[in-house]
Every structure is written in structure tokens, then in C-alpha cells.
Predict the structure.
Amino acid sequence: MEIIESVVNGTPVLTLRGRLDGIAAPAVEEKVEALLPTTPRMVFDCSGLEYASSAGLRVFLATAKKLKTAGGRCGFAALTPSLREIFDISGFLDVLEVHENLESATA
Amino acid sequence: MQQLTFTEEIVLLALDDKTGAQLPLPVTALGYGLAGAVLADLAMAGKIDTDAQQLTVLDPSPTGDPLLDPWLALITAETNPRSVAYWLSVLADRRQEIEQPALDRLIARGILKRQDKKILWVIGLRRYPTIDGHERTEVRTRLGQLILGEDLPDPRDATLLSLLRGCRLTDNIFDGPEFSARDQRLATLAKMDLVGREVAVATTEAIAALSAAMIASVPHM
């Protein structure tokens, strides 16, 4: 899976492409852990993310929890239809900050 | 104290605080709950991963925990891809082999004690009263606050709540009107872990099958 780090409108963005499974999850976690001390806000651009396993979902939830506990926010932008379905089944749509696109997530 | 595993937490929370007897649960529910706890422990240890279709072994090397390693070896030895539901069924059938070592460890940790009694001088009754209720109180308080509040759970708490609800233990642990009013919140939190969701499905199906069998066994009037 591909992880691209950028800053959009002053907000750190991690763009994820491919499949976020138990093999890929530690690399995303590592990027997140490096960013967390530097920012109260983070966005995952999920426009190229086709799949997330349980391990992937745990990284998302843990990141959102850590940022919220620190008084920050974590956004999830541009979910693909397959990822939206996984978020829906897992109840993530009800509790996480999900945006239609990267622009609204970083506004 | 070292953090309890999901398996130990489910075993502990399934016991009555005072008497040490198992809380009233539907038949097979605790078996599925413990099976789910083993899978959740292996997932948290980075040994397996799951999705709606199958369970995947990420790392077959032992965890070093004798409560988990026999099951990791069993799963690793399977050559065909299998679903979470399949492994829940396999492990639930071996509930005693999961539950007894977990009880023994909780005794070794000084949390429970073993108590053997006789009823009518003949029938043996083994119970596990609590010595140190700190762990149980702490986890109940933490999860209770999560249900009653609006905080995001961390993945570990989401998994534990999902497992507890899946095997119907939340009905015993979180009773009272304040929790009844938060049923939707609990349902949302319990959806967040795939293994816990599958435990709920397996428990519900087992109860339905048992009910159908009981109805079928009643002689027609």
C-alpha cells in the first residue's frame, strides 16, 4: 500500500492508496505516531483506499481517539464505496468525522 | 500489574462478584465469548488479522503466552482459508481448555480463589470468589463511563465491549435504567469490532437453534 504525506490548508494529510491490512497497518501507525506530537489535527485521504481489515480499522480508531483525547480532531475524507461500507458495518460512520472530500476535511 | 488479556477479562467478568458462581448466560454464549476473546488477544498481539471473509495469520511465531499459543498453533496449522465464524465454532467447542487456564492464572494473580463445596454432602460445587476486586471494578467503571458518555473508545475498550455484548454479558454487568437508556450507544460501540459482531451472531444462532429443538421436542397435543 502507498502512504503519501502532505499538508493541505495547514492540516497534515495522509493519503492512503491500496489495501490497509495487517501487513500495511504498522507502516501507517508509524507515520501517525511521528505526526501526533506535531499537530492537533490530521486527515486521512481515503480516496484511493479500497479495503481496510480489522487491523486497519484499529489504526483509524486509535488515531482518532488519541487526537480527540489531546483536544484535537481526526478527519476521514473521500471514502471509496467499499470503504464506506466497511465504516458503516463497523459503526465508524456514527462516531468518526467523515467528509465527502479533502477540501471540506481540511477547511 | 500486567494488563489482563481479553480471555482473562471475559472469564473474570462472567463470575458473580460475591458468590464466584458463573453469571446466568444463555447456553453456549460464554463459549463463543471466550473463543472471541482468544481471537481478539491474538489480533491485538499482531498474530492474526480478520475481515468479513476470513481470518489471516500474520505471524505464526508464538506469543509466549501459554493461554494463547496452543490456539495460534491450531489456527496456523489449518491450510485452508477459514472465516472468523469457523474459528469461533472450533474454539467454542473447546471452551474448557480456554476457561480453566484463564481461571488458574487469575488465581495465581491473586484476583480469584478456588472454593470447593459439597451440596447434600455429595454433589461437588466449585466456585471462584473474588479476592481482589480492583480489576473488575476498574474495567466496569471504565466501560460504564464509555457507554454513558460520548467519548470515542480506544480499540481495546471497543473490542472488550463488543465481546461482552456478543455473549450477552453486558445485560448482567451494565443493568439499571441509566444503561437501558443507552442501548443504542452500546449497540454502536459493540459494532466496532468484527470478532465481537461474529460472537453476537454465533450466540444468537445457537439460542435460536436450541429454542427450535426444544419446541420440536414438545409432544403435539
Remarks:
- Residues 215 and 221 of chain B are 12 Å apart (CA to CA).
- The domain at 6-217 of chain B is CATH 1.10.3630.10 (yeast vps74-n-term truncation variant fold).
- The radius of gyration of chain B is 18 Å.
